[in-house]
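Researcher: Next entry in the queue.
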Amino acid sequence: MGFSIKLGVAEVITLNFWRAIAAEFLGCFFFLLFVTCVTIGWGNVAVSANNVEVGLGIGLAIASLAQAFGHVSGGHLNPAVSLGMVCAGRIPMIRGLLYIIAQCIGGIGGAAVTKGCTSSVQVKNLGATFLATSVKQEQGFALEFLFTFMLVFFVLSITDEKKKQEPYGTTLGIGIYIVVAHVCLIPFTGCGINPARSFGPAVMMGIWDDHWIYWVAPFSAAIVAAPIYTFIFYVSEEDSADVSEVQMMTKDSNI
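Model: Structure for this entry, 255 residues:
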């Protein structure tokens, strides 16, 4: 099993590198446009959309956008995922850093468009993430850490080249996890698990309550998840053979 974290200076002068940066910017622009739109409750100005509606909207948005931009940049659309990919040796450090910057700028842009197109009566908090009144900081941190840990771990697993997973299966799987995470976590923390997703609405609405949690917890989770997957739960040669056999059996049986 080979592993190395590279700086990635040489690729900075290539066109494909900057195409990838642009893809992460545009992907996060649309992602935050979708996120902020789906969190607005139009039926009742006092009530936002519920966690199932939001979870479905955000999960399907991630699946669609990852499919749209994945062939260019990998479709991370999440600084925690990009950091996890760097720590796992999947992408170079410079690429990961510029991905994160592009994602955050794109997220601000997407949130800004929604705010600009929504009346002040309806906009409310624009989907900003903050802890529920009954949730303590340490509890919110723990939940954001654990759910982001599983997200990064899942992304590293499902994108493992040895699994030979079809692209549509990869993006759909990630989208399903995002739905589950939001349905579970929204009542507690609003479900960040993505610093760019939390940053965009926070900038536009000036809501910074416990905002550090939505950066420190996801980044800490990514740093922990990457080596755990890479050195313990990676796909071994035996695992790869088993996966290939199952895929062949499934194909032959037309399931």
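Model: The two ends are 32 Å apart (CA to CA).
Researcher: Noted, moving on.
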